């Protein structure tokens, strides 16, 4: 680790490939220049950072060469030597290189590594400082003449990336900037359960309140109380930032500029906490902000809380599932979760509680906020001690297996009876084996058809209501907690869905990328004459001819008919077993503070694969 | 100083201009004044908005990058401005902070380029200013500005190492006292200063003690050694006390990380790790202090941890697995953005690559534990199981891959799967590995690779697959990465794999591939691409070949023999090229495919049969080019023979026959040469014939020469005498390189393509065809043997459609036309031909002239006088160096009416073998009456000479003019023509009359004499020449060319039916320039004729065969 994370420059381009913001850091650039001059030879010398116009045209060139802004990522037949996809590694969709043409000087040089982060309409490019030998090495990699690197032995990207924390750091910078320019710098959600005396219908409406980040508040110290009362009637589950959305309006350069000059004044990022920085910018410090007498105030906690003391935890399970309903493929269900926290505590106290709820056998990973001190792993019982920052924060992430059966079981079958019509059947069983106090608050099933336009659907479910949009059919099974409290529910939904006539799509550029497209003699009679017995197969075959290749990072969009997605929210204890006993939470130095804990379970990617269709599957090692 | 002050809006434009294109754009704004000075004066104005001032500061920073370093005076002014802003109570902190930062940045860039300035007052003043600011620990209001000042000082210290070394004690005490959140900045400043002290070890006097400051903080003076020049005489004086104090400082600093932000921690680590190393701190201390980093969910901190881990590997002993599994989990955690998970995968790969080199023993131990949890008996067990285990793992991986096999071949999934496959395959022999490229040597060389590598390779997949596959079930997007990982892991296992038989495993994997290929023909292009990629690599060529062998062995028998087989031809193509794969399997498959095509042939499948047939022939051709013919001979000749006999499509049949003949007659080397010549030139002439042979995708190639069609569709060049052989095989191809000026397309006139463009069918089809002159043989001078000339007459005609010119009524004309000819066939230079002018023809309504019309020798309806102007006769004289057909490319250059120069290429002209036919040259002193008998004698002499057994066959003859000697080496051939007698005679009369030297047989003589076309020859009856017999051939039948054309021999062929009775003989003598001869002896019967052919130029047999067929069979 020769150097930390330094940024030579960053650029933001809009979707017309025009640079709308750029920032260069002369001090870092100076360091790069010195390093280059030390190692310069015939093939390598220092080049000035590109001007905005040069960078924009280089970016556009790359886009043209690589098919898209991100590029192919892997070596395909269009890949040319010297390009990123020649390196044949998916990460080149994120760490890109540009060939800068300095027209007046007739130079063409390689700019690498540029971190590419696409956010909304913007492409954010960040250029971290590396050492000249890294650049040379990459240049060799993308110009190698053989068939591609064998990892582990040849000169490869992995060891470069391991050697360069600045790339990792630059990604974080890029992501933070992305959030800022889209106004999405939101603190994690913490839900506080209100007093249990309020019951009935009101309970679900006012049952929880949202408290959002301090960024919007004029004075962070006094704010929490006011904020929580003001937003007391916020509808649960819809807790979002109350900061204005900036997505629709043009990029606020001044906000960005001021963030950059505070976060990384010389190109070396020191603190990327947008909420802290904007609080300091807007409010500054008063004489009332006294430093603590005995301890050092952490850099991530520029202000101390004053007011009524309490501490809130929200345990949030997200259930991911792949339900295949096939004998040969086992269903798969996992839970990822996090514990969010908001500590309204005066001074700089330490908080600790034991992690007893998590069954170590089921927990796959457990990671913590940097403010936490975690004993070394190994023991069954762990206690976590942390010194909470101000505002909402994620205390820990975990991944675990589900402690009970899947909340929604069953199958989904869709079969195309003709080119434009499909018959489907759902048979679901909700909350089977679940007991109170676990109840399901809402549950809906969506059949997405990203590539077809839905004209109409037909059929009545045994429970709930159905509606459709252009590209999906949604079945709302449960909309009301009361109707489903504490018992299992069987739900079926047979029906048909009709699509607008199939239109052959033009082959996308990426599609034609791989191999010379399709069979050259695509005479359909060939297939009809062969032993294609299944009509559906035939239809599918015909349609899949026109299917586009998916983006490398687009998870489910590849086949138009093959899955339904379940979304739900449950109330009650977590499925992962994660829990915090309010009595066991201890604060040092001891203060009187209420401890509130809430739990919510929502669905993540909860997928029902079409039993009659095809589905991706990964083999499980028989360990 | 500044000429004028810029307004805020002007500044905005300046900054925009600058960002877009750099300093070059600024001059018009500044008018030459110093940008810095302009900025400073604007910065000090009270009426400018703060936001603009901030922009100006950033702009100044950017400008310092490519501007020349600022002079000392500018820097001084900058500091003065800075001071006034800092001290101003009204300016907001944001501006003050930015001003501090920008000034520092500008100083650093300027001073580094100008060493002399370091000692100057600006730097000292700046540092003093910063020190004043930071020297108020815990001060409330401006705490953030203090932090910024610390950072500025730190950057100065980084740029000028040891600048602050003499005041380190002050920094430490400041650091200790600061308790607000900006303590991070004090800590970083201190740690950077310490780092430089420790690293550069300035002379001991400057920092005698950390705890007791000997010099005051302010006034600051730049250390003397910096002024003298960095690095000149740094001598570290060993001082125990210094070390002790330093340890105390470091111990203090090591308590800080919990208070730092993640990025602050990065900077801190960069400074503290070298210090810890230098001070030889206990490494376990590092472990205790920093292990927690691994368990945070900040990817950056994990990365930093890895940095420490590798620095202090010893102290982390035993944690390898923990670390590895943690990083692996990082890539599984869904809360991270995809890119961090990808990074995690890369780290782990890099991690293991490093660890292999470092911690082999431990890993070996661990792997044994993992492999046999109950039985840690050691490495032996591991070794034994490994082979089996890997196969299972790999199978699992492939199952996942093959789950995608039904996806379209262009899908991302397929691409990724094949990438993984490729990585797996090449894993065993990375390119960096210097060992040789063959499997055998690979095995040998790798047996001795360190045991280490094998262990790690084993360890990895186990751990990873487990995690990766579980996790990726539903997260398809990352599955690819995993597959990639799996492949990568197998890469590592490859040395083992070789021990256990890489080839065997490959086969296992390839089997899988074969399965999916046979199920989904769509994968073919992808597989081919994969194979090509391997074949293209010098190192992994053998793998590609191996794959081909596997496909050959396993795929071919699986394939269904129906039309779907067409999709697999790209694979066949690769197999047929590769000498390592035996051709027999493929040939057999093609044979069966041919049979299928023949059987399936019907009225609807004509095009398909032709299409597939051509493809099959394409494969045959590839085989002919790339393989030794001996290996092919049996199979290929069988395939070609049956194709030429049974295939429904005429063209395919013809071509097959042709290939067959080539295979049989032409020696291998020459054959390859011939075929290669065609193969390397993709730009096939627009003529229909050569395409089928030389361009494998010829249905497309036909429509290709659009570009040459533009002028060629208006001006046609026609043979007066159409060639007999329409589909003549020609080795000569349009050679675009010959013509130095730009050939091939139409430059002068940009015209619209004529709507009725018939480029893809027949070049001679469109328009009115005029050919009405008789053929002339212009023998300019007596032909000499080495300098033969023949000539032909051609016509050009114009058919300039109205859309070339505006006026429809007026016939367009072109002037001063020069036709130039080139040919790649072995003809001598062809002189160009001038035509004074040509008139366009009026547009015709009926453009559909049937082929028979266009080919008619004397068109009936085209004799009108006014059309004479639309055409002009062109005569091309050829000087063949070898008698072979060819193409003559025609280029036209002309003036249009409006003076435009028209330049372009016309359709090429085919020259057939019959254009080479000349009568034999007569000696000068021969009397006219003796000519017939001279010819007969010559015929007989040559006939005998061309028999290989003949004694004259080995004689040499002095060539005329004494230019050398020549030996006749003759070849014989036969051709059975099943045509009725009369039509044969007619054809001979029409086309071969000048060359007939003798007619034998009363019946025939009577017949021919009566017709009166053939004259002045020798007439004989059978009795006049005892060597002729009614039933026997004139030559002995003992030779290899004996042909049993009497099909019913079994029934006792003694009796000869009258229809098979020999009617007579034609003897035909043809001279082929420059010095060869072609002899026919035609044995005529009522319904068939046997032609015995002899020649002293064997290659011409190939064309003669076609010629005879065209002559008599059409």
UniProtKB/TrEMBL annotation, chain A:
User: Which InterPro entries does its entry note?
Assistant: AP2_Mu_C_sf, AP5M1, MHD
Q: How does it sit in the membrane?
A: Peripheral membrane protein
Q: Which SUPFAM superfamilies match?
A: Second domain of Mu2 adaptin subunit (ap50) of ap2 adaptor
Classify the main location: membrane
> In its keyword annotation, does this UniProt entry include Transport?
yes
Where in the numbering of this chain does the MHD domain appear? 308-571
Keyword annotations of the record: Membrane, Protein transport, Transport
The cellular location(s) given in this protein's UniProt record come to: Endomembrane system
- Protein family (similarity comment): Belongs to the adaptor complexes medium subunit family.
What PANTHER family would the database entry show? AP-5 COMPLEX SUBUNIT MU-1 (PTHR16082)
Protein name as it appears in the record: MHD domain-containing protein
Q: What is the lineage of its organism?
A: Eukaryota, Viridiplantae, Streptophyta, Embryophyta, Tracheophyta
UniProtKB/TrEMBL annotation, chain B:
Kindly indicate whether the keyword Transmembrane helix belongs to this entry: yes
Query: Any idea where the AP5B1 C-terminal domain is?
Result: 1062-1110
**Database matches in InterPro entries:** AP5B1, AP5B1_C, AP5B1_middle
Q: Which domain of life is it from?
A: Eukaryota
AP5B1 middle domain ranges (all copies): 244-351, 518-671
Sorted alphabetically, the keyword list is:
Membrane, Transmembrane, Transmembrane helix
- Annotated membrane-spanning segments are 292-310, 338-358
Q: Which PANTHER family match?
A: AP-5 COMPLEX SUBUNIT BETA-1 (PTHR34033:SF1)
Its protein name is AP-5 complex subunit beta-1
């Amino acid at each position: 680790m020769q150097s930390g994370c330094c940024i030579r420059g960053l650029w933001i381009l809009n979707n017309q490939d025009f640079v709308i913001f750029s920032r260069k850091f002369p001090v870092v650039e100076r360091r790069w220049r010195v390093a280059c001059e030390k190692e310069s030879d015939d093939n390598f010398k220092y080049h000035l950072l590109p001007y905005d116009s040069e960078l924009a045209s280089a970016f556009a060139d790359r886009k043209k060469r690589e098919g898209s802004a991100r590029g192919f990522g892997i070596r395909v037949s269009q890949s040319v030597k010297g390009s990123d996809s020649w390196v044949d590694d998916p990460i080149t969709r994120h760490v890109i290189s540009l060939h800068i043409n300095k027209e007046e000087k007739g130079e063409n040089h390689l700019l690498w590594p540029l971190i590419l982060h696409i956010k909304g309409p913007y492409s954010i490019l960040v250029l971290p400082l590396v050492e000249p030998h890294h650049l040379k090495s990459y240049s060799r990699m993308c110009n190698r003449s053989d068939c591609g690197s064998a990892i582990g032995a040849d000169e490869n990207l992995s060891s470069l990336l391991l050697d360069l924390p600045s790339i990792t750091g630059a990604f974080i910078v890029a992501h933070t900037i992305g959030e800022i320019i889209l106004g999405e710098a939101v603190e994690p959600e913490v839900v506080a359960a209100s007093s249990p005396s309020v019951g009935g219908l009101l309970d679900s409406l006012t049952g929880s309140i949202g408290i959002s980040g301090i960024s919007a508040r004029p004075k962070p110290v006094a704010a929490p109380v006011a904020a929580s009362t003001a937003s007391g009637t916020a509808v649960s589950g819809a807790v979002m930032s109350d900061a204005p959305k900036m997505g629709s309006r043009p990029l606020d350069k001044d906000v960005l500029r001021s963030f950059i000059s505070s976060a990384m004044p010389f190109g070396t990022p020191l603190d990327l906490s947008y909420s802290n920085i904007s609080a300091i910018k807007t409010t500054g410090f008063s004489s009332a902000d006294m430093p603590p007498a005995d301890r050092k105030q952490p850099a991530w906690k520029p202000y101390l809380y004053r007011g009524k003391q309490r501490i809130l935890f929200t345990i949030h399970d997200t259930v991911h599932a792949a339900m295949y309903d096939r004998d040969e493929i086992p269903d798969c269900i996992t839970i990822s979760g996090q514990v969010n926290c908001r500590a309204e505590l005066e001074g700089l106290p330490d908080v600790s509680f034991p992690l007893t709820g998590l069954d170590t056998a089921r927990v796959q990973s457990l990671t913590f906020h940097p403010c936490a001190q975690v004993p070394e792993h190994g023991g069954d019982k762990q206690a976590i001690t942390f010194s909470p920052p101000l505002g909402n924060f994620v205390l820990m992430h975990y991944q675990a297996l589900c402690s009970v059966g899947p909340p929604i079981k069953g199958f989904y079958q869709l079969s195309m009876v003709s080119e434009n019509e499909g018959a489907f059947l759902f048979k679901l069983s909700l909350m089977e084996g679940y007991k109170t106090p676990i109840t399901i608050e809402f549950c809906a099933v969506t059949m997405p058809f990203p590539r077809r336009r839905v004209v109409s659907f037909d059929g009545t479910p045994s429970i709930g209501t159905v509606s459709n949009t252009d590209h999906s059919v949604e079945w709302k099974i449960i909309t009301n907690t009361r109707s489903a409290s504490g018992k299992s529910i069987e739900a079926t939904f047979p029906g048909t869905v009709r699509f607008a006539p199939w239109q052959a799509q033009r082959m996308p550029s990426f599609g034609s990328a791989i191999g010379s497209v399709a069979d050259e003699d695509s005479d359909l009679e060939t297939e009809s004459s062969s032993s294609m017995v299944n009509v559906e197969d035939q239809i599918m075959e015909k349609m899949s001819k026109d299917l586009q290749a998916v983006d490398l990072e687009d998870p489910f969009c590849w086949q138009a008919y093959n899955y339904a997605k379940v979304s739900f929210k449950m109330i009650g204890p977590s499925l992962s077993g994660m829990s915090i006993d309010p009595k066991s939470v201890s604060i040092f130095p001891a203060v009187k503070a209420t401890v509130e804990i809430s739990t919510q379970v929502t669905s993540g990617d909860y997928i029902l694969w079409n039993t009659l269709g095809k589905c991706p599957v990964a083999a499980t090692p028989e360990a | 100083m500044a000429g004028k002050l810029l307004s805020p809006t002007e500044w905005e434009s300046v900054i925009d201009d600058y960002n877009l294109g750099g300093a070059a754009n600024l001059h018009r704004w500044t008018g030459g004044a110093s940008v810095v000075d302009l900025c400073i004066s604007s910065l000090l104005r009270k009426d400018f908005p703060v936001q603009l001032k901030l922009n100006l500061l950033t702009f100044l920073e950017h400008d310092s990058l490519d501007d020349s370093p600022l002079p000392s005076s500018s820097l001084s002014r900058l500091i003065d401005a800075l001071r006034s802003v800092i001290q101003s109570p009204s300016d907001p902190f944001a501006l003050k902070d930015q001003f501090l930062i920008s000034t520092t940045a500008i100083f650093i860039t300027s001073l580094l380029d100008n060493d002399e300035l370091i000692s100057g007052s600006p730097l000292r003043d700046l540092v003093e200013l910063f020190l004043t600011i930071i020297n108020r620990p815990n001060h409330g209001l401006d705490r953030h500005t203090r932090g910024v000042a610390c950072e500025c000082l730190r950057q100065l210290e980084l740029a000028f190492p040891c600048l602050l070394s003499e005041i380190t004690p002050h920094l430490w005490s400041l650091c200790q006292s600061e308790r607000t959140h900006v303590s991070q900045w004090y800590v970083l400043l201190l740690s950077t200063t310490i780092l430089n002290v420790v690293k550069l070890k300035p002379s001991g006097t400057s920092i005698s003690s950390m705890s007791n400051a000997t010099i005051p903080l302010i006034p600051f003076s730049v250390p003397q050694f910096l002024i003298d020049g960095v690095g000149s005489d740094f001598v570290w004086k060993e001082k125990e006390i210094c070390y002790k104090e330093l340890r105390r400082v470091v111990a203090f600093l090591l308590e800080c990380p919990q208070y730092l932000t993640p990025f602050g921690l990065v900077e801190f680590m960069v400074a503290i790790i070298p210090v810890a190393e230098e001070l030889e701190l206990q490494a376990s201390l590092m472990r205790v202090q920093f292990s927690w980093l691994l368990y945070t969910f900040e990817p950056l901190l994990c990365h930093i941890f890895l940095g420490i881990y590798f620095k202090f590997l010893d102290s982390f002993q035993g944690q390898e697995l923990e670390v590895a599994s943690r990083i692996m989990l990082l890539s599984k955690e869904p809360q991270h953005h995809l890119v961090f998970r990808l990074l995690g995968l890369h780290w782990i790969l890099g991690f293991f690559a490093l660890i292999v080199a470092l911690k082999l023993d431990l890993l070996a131990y661990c792997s044994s534990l993992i492999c046999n949890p109950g039985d840690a008996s050691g490495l032996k067990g591991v070794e034994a199981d490994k082979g089996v285990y890997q196969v299972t793992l790999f199978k699992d991986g492939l199952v996942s891959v093959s789950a995608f096999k039904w996806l379209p071949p262009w899908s991302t999934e397929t691409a990724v799967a094949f990438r993984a496959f490729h990585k797996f395959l090449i894993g065993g022999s990375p390119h960096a590995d210097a060992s040789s490229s063959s499997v055998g040597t690979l095995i040998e060389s790798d047996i001795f690779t360190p045991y280490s590598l094998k262990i790690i390779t084993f360890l990895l997949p186990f751990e990873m697959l487990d995690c990766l596959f579980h996790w990726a079930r539903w997260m398809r997007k990352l599955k690819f990465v995993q597959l990639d990982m799996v492949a990568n892991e197998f890469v590592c296992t490859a040395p083992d794999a070789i021990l256990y038989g890489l080839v065997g495993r490959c086969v296992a994997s390839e089997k899988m591939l074969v399965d999916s290929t046979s199920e989904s023909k769509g994968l073919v292009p992808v597989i081919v691409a994969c194979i090509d990629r391997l074949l293209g690599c010098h190192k992994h060529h053998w793998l590609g070949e191996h794959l081909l062998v596997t496909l050959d062995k396993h795929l071919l028998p699986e394939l269904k023999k129906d039309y779907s087989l067409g999709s697999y031809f790209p694979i066949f193509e690769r197999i047929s090229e590769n000498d390592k794969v035996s051709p027999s399997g493929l040939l057999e498959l093609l044979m069966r495919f041919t049979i299928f095509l023949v059987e399936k042939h019907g009225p609807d499948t004509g095009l398909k049969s032709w299409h597939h047939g051509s493809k099959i022939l394409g494969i045959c051709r590839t085989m002919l080019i790339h393989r030794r013919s001996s290996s092919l001979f049996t199979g290929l000749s069988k395939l070609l023979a049956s194709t030429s006999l049974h295939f429904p499509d005429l063209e395919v049949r013809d071509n097959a026959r042709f290939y067959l003949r080539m295979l049989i007659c032409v020696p291998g080397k020459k054959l390859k040469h011939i075929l290669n010549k065609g193969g390397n030139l993709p730009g096939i002439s627009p003529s229909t014939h050569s395409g089928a042979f030389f361009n494998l995708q010829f249905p497309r190639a036909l429509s290709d020469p659009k570009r040459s069609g533009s002028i060629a569709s208006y001006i046609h060049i026609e043979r007066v005498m159409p060639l007999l052989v329409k589909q003549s095989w020609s080795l000569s191809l349009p050679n675009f390189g010959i013509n130095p000026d730009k050939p091939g397309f139409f430059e002068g006139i940009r015209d619209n393509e004529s709507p009725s463009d018939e480029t893809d069918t027949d070049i001679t089809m469109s328009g009115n065809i005029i050919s009405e002159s008789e053929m002339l043989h212009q023998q300019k001078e007596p032909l000499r043997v080495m300098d033969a000339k023949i000539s032909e007459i051609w016509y050009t005609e114009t058919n300039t459609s109205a859309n070339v010119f505006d006026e429809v009524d007026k016939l367009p004309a072109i002037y001063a036309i020069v036709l130039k000819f080139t040919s790649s066939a072995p003809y001598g230079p062809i002189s160009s031909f001038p035509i004074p002018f040509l008139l366009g023809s009026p547009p015709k309504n009926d453009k559909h002239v049937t082929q028979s019309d266009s080919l008619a020798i004397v068109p009936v309806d085209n004799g009108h006088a006014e059309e004479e102007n639309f055409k002009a006769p062109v005569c091309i004289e050829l000087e063949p160096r070898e008698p072979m057909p060819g193409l003559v490319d025609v280029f036209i250059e002309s003036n249009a009416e409006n003076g435009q120069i028209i330049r372009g290429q016309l359709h090429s002209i085919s020259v057939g073998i019959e254009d080479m036919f000349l009568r034999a040259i007569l000696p000068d002193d021969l009397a006219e009456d003796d000519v017939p008998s001279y010819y007969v004698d010559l015929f007989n002499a040559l006939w005998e000479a061309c028999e290989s057994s003949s004694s004259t066959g080995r004689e040499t003859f002095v060539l005329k003019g004494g230019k050398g000697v020549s030996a006749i080496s003759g070849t014989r051939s036969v051709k059975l023509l099943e045509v009725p007698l009369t039509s044969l005679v007619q054809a001979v009369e029409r086309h071969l009359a000048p060359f007939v030297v003798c007619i034998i047989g009363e019946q025939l003589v009577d017949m021919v004499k009566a017709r009166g076309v053939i004259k002045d020859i020798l007439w004989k009856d059978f009795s006049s020449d005892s060597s002729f017999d009614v039933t026997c051939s004139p030559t002995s039948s003992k030779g290899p060319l004996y042909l049993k054309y009497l099909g019913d021999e079994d029934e006792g062929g003694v009796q000869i039916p009258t229809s098979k009775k020999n009617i007579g003989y034609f003897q035909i003598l043809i001279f082929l320039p420059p010095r060869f001869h072609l002899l026919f002896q035609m044995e005529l019967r009522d319904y068939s004729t046997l032609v015995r052919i002899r020649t002293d130029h064997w290659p011409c047999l190939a064309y003669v065969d076609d010629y005879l067929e065209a002559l008599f069979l059409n």
